[in-house]
Design goal:
The chain is an alpha/beta fold. 46% of the residues lie in helices and 15% in strands. The chain is elongated and about 85 Å long.
Length: 452
């Protein structure tokens, strides 16, 4: 077989995969482009040799531009086009080739659109004139070399800054299992975000909560409050160890799931059922199979009494007020006699008077020796009923961290604020109307814990 046959064709395809084309001219210009990228990456605190890695270099360039999702999309579509071009060498069916050609065109269009967004982001980061965009589109090696090697062109911020900052290196110490109550040692909770990246939602949260405590969970939007409660009740497992009265929630989840009651913000109750019928149906689902009908009736009576629902036991759910529906939702979870009860904004949609009445019931539940954790966005009208406060905040990496855990009075002293809403404002980011001091208090709390 001649050198102009399949071997040379395969060689050209391999050159296309690694260098974006074939021929000496393409190789030289691409080599210069990679050299310029190497220096641009270093200016953004990214290892320069990533410029030599096919496809991943596009992702890294997106990070330099503050366009990480767009860079990821370019990397994926570039890989897709390369695979199709290589596969076309070994396919003879014209219909399949036509279909692959259509896919290639679609991927190329997506690639061009996202590339323009990345180039525009780079122009903003380097604070240069918009006309540089044309050079990035039609002659990539030129701006890459100029920006990479000239000291005149410097990024206004660095991609590595979000990972290499003081708060990233702060760690709170793990806590020992008390044998009773709730012990949480959460190292991290992360989710896949595209092909090359995992997003960290929570990191380094450790605490012990004693039985009989009513705990308020606060934090700004996106701080990870719901993610945190889902992690401790085992609904969404994290890299964590969660112990409830000496038992591992994750390892014994099938047995422990009814020990952890969770009341969501929205209920799924049938409006045409009565209150008592709703509770009896739920008791049949949640209570052990060895419970007799009388046992279930007794448990329902206990819940009706505790949550003040006796007078409306025969009322339709659709006829209840907002506060009564909330109490019914909580009563349903209370039927399984949980050791830990978590409530996601139970006071949402109710007025101040009803909110206080609701949390008076929660105070009674906690006083029976249970742990009650409640998320609320209107804390100051009920804060004096609570024992402890958990404050979660987004750090510079946009990861939910523990900024404080302790009593209400300790929280006020720690932040120098009397109102809980002012505490949340202090740690919220400026674009959220806050003071942007989350890192400061995350570090401060971690240091205090380490010195205890």
């Amino acid at each position: 077989m001649s050198i102009e046959g399949v071997p040379m064709t395969v060689l050209k395809a391999l050159l296309s995969v690694f260098f974006g084309g074939s021929g000496l001219y393409i190789i030289v210009t691409q080599a210069l482009y990679f050299l310029g990228l190497w220096k641009i990456f270093e200016k953004s605190d990214i290892k320069g040799w990533w410029a030599l890695v096919p496809w991943y270099r596009e992702y890294q360039l997106g990070k330099c531009a503050g366009k990480e999702p767009e860079g990821r999309a370019i990397a994926v579509t570039s890989f897709f086009v390369s695979v199709i071009e290589f596969a076309r060498l070994f396919i003879a069916n014209e219909y399949i080739l036509l279909l692959l050609g259509v896919f290639t065109i679609m991927a190329a269009i997506i690639n061009v659109v996202y590339s323009i967004q990345v180039y525009t982001g780079l122009i903003d980061v380097y604070n240069v004139r918009k006309r540089w965009l044309w050079l990035w589109i039609f002659a990539e090696p030129i701006p890459a070399l100029v920006w990479g090697f000239s000291k005149k062109y410097q990024p206004s911020w660095k991609a590595g800054e979000f990972r290499d900052n003081a708060v990233s290196h702060v760690k709170g110490g793990e806590v020992a299992d008390m044998g009773e109550g709730l012990t949480v040692n959460l190292n991290k909770r992360e989710v896949a975000e595209g092909l090359f990246h995992k997003k960290q939602l929570l990191k380094d949260i450790h605490m012990n909560i004693k039985p009989g405590r009513l705990v308020m969970l606060l934090g700004g939007s996106g701080a990870g409050k719901t993610t945190y409660v889902n992690a401790i009740n085992g609904y969404e497992k994290a890299d964590a160890k969660v112990m409830l009265n000496g038992r591992d929630v994750y390892k014994e989840y099938s047995k422990m799931q009814f020990e952890c009651g969770f009341v969501p913000q929205s209920d799924l109750m049938r409006g045409k059922d009565t209150v008592q019928h709703t509770l009896m149906d739920y008791a049949a689902l949640r209570l052990p199979s060895d419970f007799t009908l009388q046992d279930r009736k007794d448990r329902v009576e206990e819940a009706l009494k505790l949550f003040g629902l006796g007078p409306v036991r025969n009322s339709m759910v659709s006829q209840l007020s907002g506060g009564q529906r909330k109490r019914l939702s909580i009563a349903m979870e209370f039927l399984s006699n949980p050791t830990l009860l978590i409530l996601d904004e139970p006071d949402s949609g109710v007025d101040g008077v009803m909110a206080k009445e609701l949390f008076k019931q929660m105070r009674k539940v906690a006083d029976t020796g249970r742990i009650v954790i409640a998320i609320t966005h209107t804390p100051d009208r009920v804060v004096d009923m609570f024992d402890d406060v958990i404050i979660l905040a987004k750090d510079s990496d946009r990861t939910g961290r523990l900024a404080f855990y302790g009593t209400v009075d300790e929280c006020r002293k720690f932040f120098g604020k009397e109102r809980m809403e002012d505490v949340v404002k202090t740690i919220n980011r400026p674009e959220e109307g806050g003071d942007g001091r989350a890192d400061e208090f995350i570090i401060k709390y971690a240091q205090e814990v380490q010195h205890v």
